[in-house]
Amino acid sequence: MDELDKIDLSRLPTATRPLLGLTVLVVEDSRYACEAMRLMCLRSGARLRRADCLKSARRHLQVYRPSVAIVDMGLPDGSGADLIAEMAGAMPRVDVILAISGDDFAETVAIAAGADGFLAKPLSGVSLFQSAVLAHLPAERRPAGLRTVSDEIIVPDPVAYRDDMAHAADVLSDACDDRSIAYVVQFLSGVARSAGDSTLLDAADALAISREKGQPVQSLAASLAGLVQERLSERVAI
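The structure corresponding to this sequence follows.
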């Protein structure tokens, strides 16, 4: 049998679905951000699997090797840079390793850890998502010929945003140490930036600045918790 006959043509990338046949592991604790990437994968032909922390991601990687890994830099149980370094040094290596964060300074750390590229939050354009993946795929995995460029902007389900608020509320209720404060600040900053919630973003940034300066953060943390509760009580989150 000719080698071409062995190829499943239904899983080859096309101009309209350039990521067909790929499996994308998204390591992301935000349900809202993950929902956006799920929709982008759906539009692009890729299959998505999600892990919400380092422990879960490592469990996934023990079972299978994805074609693409997209890793959030701030996770509840550690830095995404650690997982990126592990995947970058593994044999065989994941074809494409991308970092994602709302913190621009995270790009340098991600690339130093071994990431092939960096995605800045908010990520909402299908074309940008596809281009970031395709730019680092081996030539034989890319669609032949011209690609249909989509200008579609992805808008995730608001329920996913509410889920993120519930998670943040749980963390804030027990945030009695600096590590918990640091985590919830970066989490809410990323979620608020992705959802265009400027009020919540400003509050998270104010808390981050006070924490970095070594100033008391209790009142700002309480204000942030109040904003989170407001969003939880609203019928439509955003």
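Residues 3-141 form a domain with the Rossmann fold fold (CATH 3.40.50.2300).
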